[in-house]
Amino acid sequence: MAEKGQDIGINTRLAHIGPQPSERHGFVNPPIQRGSTVLFPTAQTMRSEGQKYTYGTHGTPTTDALCDALNELEGSAGTLILPSGLAAVTLPFLACLSAGDHMLMVDSVYAPARRFCENVLKRMGIETEYYDPAIGAGIEGLIRPNTKLVHLEAPASNTFEMQDIGATAAAAKKHGCVVTMDNTWATPLFFRPLDHGVDISIHAATKYPSGHSDILMGTVSANAETWGRIEAANRDLGLCGSPDDAYQILRGLRTMGVRLAHHMESAIAVAEWLEQREDVARVLHPALASFPGHDIWKRDFKGASGVFSFVLKADKPEDHTRKAQAFLDALTYFGLGYSWGGYESLAVHVYLGDRRICKGPTDGPLIRLQIGLEDVKDLKADLEKGFAAARAA
């Protein structure tokens, strides 16, 4: 494999990251090493834990192969794999926050993360304050003496607002805050949070790293400054991903660059087509020049994934749900389902009722699309059926 830092293409890197075939008798893929119990050669080794593997929850050669690959992609000091994306979001909060602390969370965050803060952290005596994603360096005005963590997500969940990540992180770090970011939409192929001042990069590997809608996994990649705290907290919590799932995610990484290129090309084509339609009020996609956060996306990101939203035109608020449901029920190739990042296209009517600052569109129902690997002409024809049904509703 080429040495780290050498200027090689992303697909070449994805094809060769992680432990090398020479380390496993020439076999291209690592074996799946399952296990809970690990034996020690002597009592002293057991007492001192003086060997690489000590118990299944602390890692296996298979899970380490995935972590090594992700460390290279993220530029991180260490990576943990966890049972879900939500587990990956919440672990840094539990690791870095204590009773009496204050955290700042972007208001356009993944909804289950907000629910965790309101239901779990609040009960623990930790206060969460929500901020506008456009705040940038102005977040310094919200930082209190007890503010310990600032959480970012860009583009925003469902509405895709961009954040000036570098400016926000720099302001937070001036006051000693840990900065975390959910980077699931972009993946480390299109954006590397740690290069922009973020301490902890979070992903739902369920999405693009898996690519096939059959694995649940989250990853947490930390810089050297915060890695020890994250690793120690996870040992206390006992969270881990299975070797079988790690193998599948590592396998998915090999084709993620090729898949993302297709997702991006198709999604932009569909988004541009939607922008021209009279029955669409507006399209929320950072890669479109018309989108308010486009300049930040163009400056900081290397690409766009296949998820975006649009506002279905509806004059009366009382018509929103009916028209949205008629639109969705008429679709064939777009499945009605949560999550995204798989090979299949999906659509969902977005709920934004828990927002406090970023209230979202009011000129019609918000429909989120995941553009899969199908042919664009077939997806457009499917959406045409949805629009016809919405007009008739």
Automatic annotation (TrEMBL):
<dbReference type="GO" id="GO:0030170">
    <property type="term" value="F:pyridoxal phosphate binding"/>
</dbReference>
<dbReference type="GO" id="GO:0019346">
    <property type="term" value="P:transsulfuration"/>
</dbReference>
<feature type="modified residue" description="N6-(pyridoxal phosphate)lysine">
    <location>
        <position position="207"/>
    </location>
</feature>
<keyword id="KW-0456">Lyase</keyword>
<dbReference type="InterPro" id="IPR000277">
    <property type="entry name" value="Cys/Met-Metab_PyrdxlP-dep_enz"/>
</dbReference>
<dbReference type="GO" id="GO:0047804">
    <property type="term" value="F:cysteine-S-conjugate beta-lyase activity"/>
</dbReference>
<comment type="similarity">
    <text>Belongs to the trans-sulfuration enzymes family.</text>
</comment>
<dbReference type="InterPro" id="IPR015421">
    <property type="entry name" value="PyrdxlP-dep_Trfase_major"/>
</dbReference>
<dbReference type="InterPro" id="IPR006233">
    <property type="entry name" value="Cys_b_lyase_bac"/>
</dbReference>
<dbReference type="Pfam" id="PF01053">
    <property type="entry name" value="Cys_Met_Meta_PP"/>
</dbReference>
<dbReference type="InterPro" id="IPR015424">
    <property type="entry name" value="PyrdxlP-dep_Trfase"/>
</dbReference>
<protein>
    <submittedName>
        <fullName>Cystathionine beta-lyase</fullName>
        <ecNumber>4.4.1.8</ecNumber>
    </submittedName>
</protein>
<dbReference type="InterPro" id="IPR015422">
    <property type="entry name" value="PyrdxlP-dep_Trfase_small"/>
</dbReference>
<keyword id="KW-0663">Pyridoxal phosphate</keyword>
<dbReference type="GO" id="GO:0019450">
    <property type="term" value="P:L-cysteine catabolic process to pyruvate"/>
</dbReference>
